[in-house]
Structures are given as C-alpha cells and as structure tokens.
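Hi support team,

I submitted a single chain yesterday and got back a structure, but I'm not sure I'm reading the token output correctly. Could someone confirm the output below corresponds to the sequence I sent? I've pasted both exactly as they appear in my results page.

Thanks,
R.
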Amino acid sequence: MKIPTKRIFNEIVELSEFKKDFKKLTKKFKTLSEDFEVFKNTQLKAFHKLKQDNKGNLRIFNLGIDCPLIYKVVKFACRVLKGRGVKSGIRVIYAYYPDKDKIEFIEIYYKGEKENEDRERILRYYSKKAGSKDSREGKHSKGCS
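Hi R., thanks for writing in. Yes, this is the structure output for that exact sequence:
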C-alpha cells in the first residue's frame, strides 16, 4: 500500500547520495518506503509545523554550519522490525531551511551497520568552504532565520 506524501513543506528534496542509501536499505527493510512516507507526514510535520518535540529529531551542532539547520532523526518506526517501535536503528539526516520551508534529505542508514552520520558528506554539501556558487555569493544563509 503506497502512502502519499501530503504537501506539508514548500519543497522536499532527496540528494542523490540519499537516494542511493535509501535504495540499498529498502532491499533489507521491505516496509521502509511506506514507513518513510509516514515519517514525513507525521514526525516531520509535528516537529517543524506543530512544534511538538518527541526528542526524535536532534539538531547536529559542531559542523560550523549555521544554515541550513541539520538534524538527525533517532526515532524512526520501521514496521518490518517488529517490537522495536521507534527504536528501529534507522537514522535519517536532513537539512531544514525554515524561511524557505524546505527539507533536504542527506543520508539514511541503519545504526547496526554504521555508527554515525557522514559528516564529510554534510560538509561537502553545506559548508561555506565548499566553494559552491551559492556559498561564494553568500546565499548560503538565505532560508534561515
């Protein structure tokens, strides 16, 4: 059963490396596609729109990045992992631009196979030192309050 994503945010983007991670994990966790849609429609909405914090979305600091806001999801329900509830071990890393109301999914992984997020990947996409046209022109901070 395919669960459609409701239009909650102005824009939701999946980076190419995220798509590759996701495809790999869906082979192992057959319900992941549906679980991910439920996550977007419920947990992301509750946290960013309704300001309800279930301690499942943790801001990642110490990256030297002010904008976008980078989060790690530590409470992600995966139905194929019965009996574990939100303690599935699935981790989602994403960027949030509050003023643009935009989400960019950066990485998804299973904690049993990988302990922490790929900070190099985050910095490659969002560091002001990355040398992108946007960061050189100071556009990096747009979209954050």
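A quick pointer for reading it: The beta strands are 11-14, 57-59, 69-73, 90-97, 102-110. Let us know if anything else looks off.

Best,
Support desk
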